[in-house]
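Before a colleague's protein record goes any further, I have to sign it off. My question to you is simply how this chain folds and whether the tokens agree. I do not need a full report, just your reasoning and any doubts. This is what I was given:
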Amino acid sequence: MKAAVVTTFGTSPSFQEFRDPEAGEGREVVAVRAAAISPIVRLLAAGKHYTSGENAGFVPGIDGVGIDGTGRRVYFLFPASPFGSLAEKSLVASEMMVPVPEALPDNLAAAIATAGLASWIALTRRAGLQSGEKVMVLGATGSAGGMAVQIARHLGASTVIAVGRDAAKLERVDADVRIPLDNGAEAALRAQFEKGVDVVLDFVWGEPAVRVLKAATHNRAARTGEPRMRYVQIGTSAGDEVPLRGDMLRSSGLELIGSGIGSVSVSDFMAGAAELLAAASAAGFDTPFNSVPLHSIADAWHGDTDTRYIVTSAT
């Protein structure tokens, strides 16, 4: 089969022949129709993700939309190594597939699932968002952050606050409040936390997270107790580490929570994917993406990293 193959960590995948996967032991061959080049896929291909293996020589891609052995159109997640989703075929455990609603085209289904699953899981499984609560999204200008804004509102958030470093992109985010991380951000952030924020979804970590955490815990320690605030860490595009004072935790209702592979079970990921896709059409979920053929993998790999690329076929 044709596939995008990582031959060396840190280089772009090459379009070449790769051995066909074979079904067996609870695994099915899926004919791939659409698969995303997401940030985690890039990290895995560079050998920099915490789930990266030790050796190259594999097809990247952790999810996609395709046709299973029964002819059913499915979204699949975590295909069996080395048969990732950026290929004509992938090898997927039977329990790692959920049906795709007819109303969703292949590429849109792949884009919504790839960009939206992290926030759907974070809000439904980790934060336990309740109707009427207020949600802040840090990193709202990216694909995942933009989907998080839509999903938070769909799940009942009364107010969605978008925070990001690119003021121009932030203006295009359909949030109730937008806060660009410029020199005046601290006052605007503090004002929102004074009004009350129940959940923060953090897609970036690093220095932007430090600014948000400081604003969230500024002048706390009320004798009557501080309201609970769940801070859910999802991505680290702005840095892997942050300095954190102990008294920030002691003096506030701040709860630091992670959401991702390991903190959430695989079965919950799949259940969440089914819920997300089932809700997508009625909720009007949408996310920008560019569709490219598999043979153009090198061009897409070196393209704008702010753009979500959906690889659609080998021809």
The longest helix spans residues 106-126. The mean pLDDT is 94.
